[in-house]
Design goal:
Layout lengths: L2 H18 L20 H9 L3 E8 L2 E12 L2 E4 L1 H4 L4 E5 L5 E10 L4 E5 L21 E6 L7 E15 L5 E8 L11 E4 L4 E10 L2 E6 H14 L5 E2 L3 E4 L2 H6 L8 E5 L15 E5 L2 E5 L3 E5 L2 E2 L3 H11 L5 E8 L2 E8 L1 E2 L5
Antiparallel strand pairs: 1-2, 1-4, 2-3, 3-6, 4-5, 5-6, 7-8, 7-10, 8-9, 9-12, 10-11, 11-12, 13-22, 14-15, 15-18, 16-17, 18-19, 18-20, 20-21
């Protein structure tokens, strides 16, 4: 990384903030609302970050199996999506200078759709830092990678939503995902969603529709990737319950004051919650719609309010580990009480 690139990644945020508050002097030819020639934050971002973003090509015995993107997380470690490298025998990475190098799979986690690869990067490729807090909705971001195999691409937008619960390409639930309107296409998978400061807000994982893309959060990435590098796998906390969101109709059926919390539809035998938490037992009709009743409604974990299924998943993913004992506050038979559950390990998806 040369001196100018270091200076950009360290100081771009402050510089952009000051530019945003400036007014053009009289006689300035720039048009209001458009960037002046010397105010091109996305161009500067691309120049600074592109040496650390790669195009990936994955091969099996029949030839090219998949293509995707990745980025340099640490010295010699690339991050991408698990679904990009799944089933591959050989992975090659193309850096911004055009060179192709062989990458070795260190580990992958289908539940978070993250994978770590070992690689020898060129001298100008340096690790991209992870954002250390959740981005605000409206934060300007850019998706870098190789959509449709077009290496060195950058699309721009904003953070459209946070704390999204999405289904991965393999139909596993990922909590705390980042939503963006930056264009995301096949081949972007595994690339970084970058802030203007050059930090990674998330790992692009899929498109959800027109102007809707999703990224695995930086917080989950920071938990998973070091374990993949060290051990080749990652163990997720497991409560072992089947859940439903609390809708107004479900709240009416269960005598709840508010439509908030997470309803336990079932507690399978042998799960960590078996014998501690209570699943639904009956069904009643509310306004002509069948609604389950009799199950616990989770409203807090270790004192942290849980209003939605997404909040439950995010707390378990980011704040707990297998073997932890958590205090689960539930509404049961109209009364609030707290019980303790020792978390297990999420079963092997195979």
């Amino acid at each position: 990384m040369d001196g100018s690139r270091r200076q950009f990644l360290a100081a771009a945020g402050a510089g952009l903030a000051s530019l945003a508050g400036c007014t053009a002097p009289e006689g300035d030819p720039s048009v209001a609302g458009l960037d002046a020639p010397d105010d091109q934050p996305f161009a500067e971002l691309y120049e600074a970050a592109s040496p650390s973003v790669v195009r990936l090509r994955v091969y099996d015995s029949r030839g090219v199996l998949a293509e995707g993107s990745g980025w340099l997380y640490d010295d010699g470690v690339l991050v991408t999506n698990a679904h990009v490298v799944a089933g591959g025998e050989t992975v090659r990475a193309q850096f911004a200078n055009g060179d192709w190098v062989t990458a070795e799979l260190l580990g992958s986690d289908p539940y978070s759709d993250l994978a770590a690869l070992a690689v020898e990067p060129p001298m100008d490729a340096t690790p991209l830092p992870l954002l250390d807090e959740q981005p605000r909705v409206g934060t300007r971001v850019a998706a870098a990678g190789a959509p449709l195999g077009l290496e060195g691409s950058l699309t721009t937008g904003v953070v459209s939503g946070v704390n999204r619960t999405i289904s991965s390409v393999r139909n596993f639930t990922i909590s705390g995902a980042i939503q963006t309107d930056a264009a995301v296409n096949p081949g972007n998978s595994g690339g970084p969603l970058l802030t203007l400061e050059g930090t990674v807000a998330g790992v692009i994982t899929q498109a959800g529709g027109e102007n809707i893309g999703f990224a695995v959060s930086s917080a989950l990435t920071e938990r998973v990737i070091p374990e993949l590098v060290e051990t080749g796998s990652y163990q997720h906390s497991y409560l072992g319950v089947r859940i439903l969101p609390v809708t107004p109709l479900l709240a009416d059926a269960n005598g709840l004051d508010d439509a908030r919390g997470v309803y336990l539809a079932a507690v399978p035998a042998g799960s960590p919650a078996d014998g501690v938490l209570q699943g639904g037992t009956e069904t009643v009709s509310v306004g002509g719609s069948p609604q389950p009743t009799g199950g616990d409604v989770i409203v807090a974990l270790d004192g942290t309010t849980i209003d939605t299924t997404g909040q439950l998943g995010t707390y378990l993913a980011l704040e707990t580990s297998p073997g932890d004992t958590v205090g689960v506050t539930v509404i049961r038979d109209g009364e609030e009480q707290t019980v303790e559950v020792t978390l297990g390990t999420r079963p092997d998806p195979r």
